[in-house]
Amino acid sequence: MEPVEGGPVLRAADVDVVRDGNVLLRSISLTVRPGEHWALLGPNGAGKSTFLDLLGAVKHPTRGVVEVLGHRLGRVDVRELRSLLGHVNPRHSLDSALRVREIVLTGATNTIELVPRWTPSVEEERHARELIELMGMTGKAEARWPHLSQGERGRALIARALMPRPRLLLLDEPATGLDLAAREQLLSSLDTLRRENPALATVLVTHHLEELPASTTHALLLREGECMAYGPVDEVLTTDLVSKCFDHPVRISRVDGRWSARA
Description:
By secondary structure, the protein is α/β, with parallel strands linked by helices. It has 8 helices and 12 strands. A hairpin with a 2-residue loop joins strand 11 (251-255) and strand 12. The chain is globular and about 50 Å long. The chain starts with 9 loop residues before the first strand and ends with a strand.
């Protein structure tokens, strides 16, 4: 399966998600084009992770249309489609003590563990080294998973997600559990990644504006399963709209490309 060239990377049109009689998403639409970097924001329970699961071909909508890399969910082998995406989940369920280099290489096989009797090619080994360097992890290439900090794990998982050279990278709260230094290292790495891969599109889920990289271009605000606003980031991340989304008065400021919120 090849990505369909020339169109949007993602398209969702009038999407509803209903589970056990509960409406989790209602009439959500979104189009993501190459080179755009979207932030998906909202309070806990707003439906962010549910929407990301649709975009990552993990779940199907109850109603509406979702197209990923030009392929419509419901008319495509989603297992094959997922192999074309980069999906970063900080709750990566790795049980064995793989080295960083090995973790990154599992991105080539789209597996959690190394595939028995599988040997990476010379090109795959080279690509893995380049991604480890890009994410600032060269000195940790032989370090094992249990000995990595939360921030180091996050950067290793981003490198892993980039192994298949995806056109789309999905990041589910990548800064969860990071201290200040680790968060800043991660966001700096994301800015570098986006700058060096101008055609890459990304969608990052968070509920903290401080966790948004400066390279963010667009934003969508979700509240109780409904879209409150979406579009260019400076038009959406305003004091008025963010206050309404989180149902709390806040003042939004942006300094050196980074956002902060204060009561």
